[in-house]
Amino acid sequence: MSLAPPGRVPERAPDSRPASGPGSGDPAGPAAAAAPRKTPGRGDPGASTDPGSHAAHGRPATPARRRLLTRGSFPYLLIMPAVLGFAVFKAYPIAASFWISLTTGSGDEQRFAGLANYERLLTDPLFWTALKNTGLILVVQVPLMLGLALLVALGLNSTKVWLRPLWRLGVFVPSLTGLVAAGVMFSVILNRDAGLLNWVLSLFGIDPVNWLGSPFWARVAVVLVITWHYTGYNAVMYLAGLQGIPKELYEAAMVDGAGPVRRFFAITLPQLRPILLLTVVLSTIGTLQLFDEPYVLTGGGPDNSTLTVTMYLYDNGFTYFDFGYASALAYALALIVSVLGIIQVRLMGERR
Amino acid sequence: MTSRGPLLTVLLAGAFGLCVGPFYWLAMAATQDDKDVFSWPPKLLPGGHLLDNLQGLQESIGLTRVLLNTVVVAGVQTVGAVVVSVLAGYAFAKFDFRGRNLFFVLLLSTLVIPDTVMLIPIFQMMMELGLIDTYQSVILPGLVTPFGIFLMRQALRSMPDELLDAARVDGAGELRVLWRIVIPVNRPIIAALALFVFLGAWNQFVWPLIALRSPEMYTLPVATATLQGLSTTNYAHVLLASALAAIPVMALFLVLQRQFISGLLAGATKE
């Protein structure tokens, strides 16, 4: 308000925008504003040149030729690149992938096969192995990582800690690394005979662990590497959430005699719920699509113990060029991701 | 109560060590002779083979060309994706138009669809367009980032309308408002978005691995992965390649960390 020259726009009021202003997601509201939008007021200054949301009664008329880009057409110009890209690289591939999943054959000899790929998928032991591996990693890794991230965030949020910016910087650094760089680095660090980790363990008298060579430890290694990679990122998200919690809530709770544990469960966790939900959903999506780390670390081995669904999809699509089956795998994965996402939003979002 | 400070500090320093320690080791290992990478105990001081290893990488993967490819791909993709995101984010944040909510929801819903679903059709499309093994094939699919558009919309919504209207009243056209007001005022958040996109573009692996065929087109992550697949892997070289991949991103992050973290927070806390 204060930024507008007051003498020239006497009647402007900040709340003259409809409550359905941009992004409120209310489809009913904009209907009122929509009417003038279709006639963007070209050469009709009386009808207001900015349709919809603004009251511009006091505005001096502007010559029509200076209004080539009216507010009516301008937003469409703005979103045009996004719409084009969306159509070509999102909408079309999502639809095409479904069609391909109904075909068999390779290269130019794709032919319609109905649900054959999906039937094959249900009886394919490797698919179930991959799904089991992925699920196992998900169930162990996501709670471990998010729990650690919350602890780190609580620590970083404490004013009693010295050198906070340094620690915050440090824990965030791993999430900057590419998956390949991290994978390569850890494939050497986890080396059985000469790796850094086994050397550190030996300092504590622990025998060398065959990190990448045994099915059990290979899974542990994958979990460790992903946890290393993303914990700091989630911690910084939580830190943001913690800093947004009003101090008064804690003060009031302390007056009421609530101890630290009580305050954590009664204030901190509920206040963090939106961000917790976001990180749970994002981590779940990410873990279900796990590819790079096992690809670089273990190649899916030993004995397929770290084969993930996306790796199996990649093998079928780009090693055997079985696009139909790979697309069916992709859709099965998409289905699992969506269902889990919906369940999580339901479980965590409902008690708001 | 007062004794908690030192304890927490020590714990956080431990977390810091776990996070940063591997990088220290990586930097040291990248300067060793191949044999010394696997020496026991590990060498934790710089070796004298950095230049040898750089030369080895130049011979095995054509390091300069691979770096150039990565810079071109990540640079162009970043600029393109930021432009698309700023334009669309501004439209979603500040304009009412028919179809706005529908398109925004469609766009966001693609966030939950695994990227792998799209790999094969995009691969086929690129084959038919004859773009496989070109920069375009890697760059184009990354130009529309639902996350980027979402982030920009969140950020631009908090810009006061009075600011925009004041410029309009003064006779500025819409493009001028965008260029002279919206972009300068939001430069920090746009810088944060650019960092996010650059991070993803610089490190992307699966799609370039599929889209690129010839070694002289490879980006650094793809070249690094192929190096490691060789039976006679020179680990000093692979580790140096990994270190080289990490250095530019970390340098950028150090310079722009305030923007980066505030960008992360903008996406996380609003709405």
TrEMBL record, chain B:
Keyword Membrane in record: yes
Origin species: Streptomyces showdoensis
Biological processes, Gene Ontology terms: transmembrane transport
Swiss-Prot/TrEMBL keywords: Cell membrane, Membrane, Transmembrane, Transmembrane helix, Transport
Coiled-coil regions, chain positions: none
Superkingdom of the source species: Bacteria
SUPFAM superfamilies assigned: MetI-like
Ranges of residues in domain ABC transmembrane type-1: 67-256
Transmembrane segments: 66-90, 102-123, 135-152, 189-210, 235-256
Pfam hit, one: BPD_transp_1
Cell location: Cell membrane
Protein name per the record: ABC transporter permease
InterPro entries: MetI-like, MetI-like_sf
